[in-house]
Specification:
This protein has 220 residues and is α+β, with helices and mostly antiparallel strands. It has ten helices and five strands, in the order ααββαβααααααββα. Helix 4 packs antiparallel against helix 5. The protein is globular, with a radius of gyration of 17 Å. The N terminus is likely disordered.
Length: 220
């Protein structure tokens, strides 16, 4: 099923607890010519939902990350590399970091929706907690929804607001639009994918790779 085909009915099944994380619904990728250049101007434009941003607007370097909440490599980056990146570059005014959703399965879409529904200064902290506790909810063999709800409650969700969020078709459509845009226009076909001042990071997302890419981006 493509993400664009995901409907309120699909997310209702998540809210009702009928989705088993061990049998995820995956999303097809749109095709894009490998040699098609990425327009930096288009890349820097926010998605329909608006970007999740950390750092100063006038920072000399901008990193855009496309991530899926059920992606183990994404969790590894956020749990082990991002804290250093944040301390070394974001908090010192050298880096603006943009997070964008690229869900790989239905459960990832649900988690992204919850993060957006948390709103305001709760969204990014909830993303961080979801990544930190990913194994508790994303890879369980039984129904994942109760575990996801336990985490959501820490951000102030009630059962009513939790279910309401997961049946918000307009929100799901915007996440879908952002994902399709990333795939078609920027060639995103895996997570995590990083663009540093418009240039795709080719190496693995280690702090050493970011040190090198940020230095080159600022120099140019």
């Amino acid at each position: 099923m493509s993400l664009s085909a995901l409907s309120r009915r699909s997310l209702l099944s998540v809210a009702a607890g009928s989705l088993a994380a061990s049998v995820p619904t995956t999303f097809a990728f749109a095709q894009r010519k490998a040699d098609m250049p990425v327009s930096v101007e288009e890349l820097m434009k926010p998605d329909a939902l608006g970007d999740l941003v950390l750092g100063k607007a006038d920072a000399p370097c901008t990193i855009i990350e496309y991530a899926s909440m059920t992606c183990g490599h994404c969790a590894h980056f956020h749990n082990t590399v991002f804290p250093t990146l944040k301390t070394k570059y974001i908090e010192t005014g050298k880096l603006r970091f943009v997070m964008r959703e690229f869900p790989l399965d239905t459960l990832a879409a649900a988690a992204s929706m919850l993060a957006r529904c948390a709103g305001g200064d709760k969204t990014i902290p909830l993303i961080e907690v979801l990544f930190a506790k990913q194994e508790d909810w994303a890879f369980v063999r039984t129904n994942a929804v109760p575990e996801l709800f336990k985490i959501a409650k820490q951000a102030g969700f009630t059962q009513e607001s939790f279910d309401k969020c997961l049946t918000d078709q307009a929100l799901l459509d915007k996440i879908s639009q952002g994902r399709e845009r990333a795939s078609k226009q920027f060639g995103v076909d895996a997570t995590p994918t990083f663009f540093i001042n418009g240039k795709k990071l080719q190496d693995g997302p280690s702090i050493e790779a970011f040190d090198k890419a940020i230095a080159e981006a600022v120099k140019s």
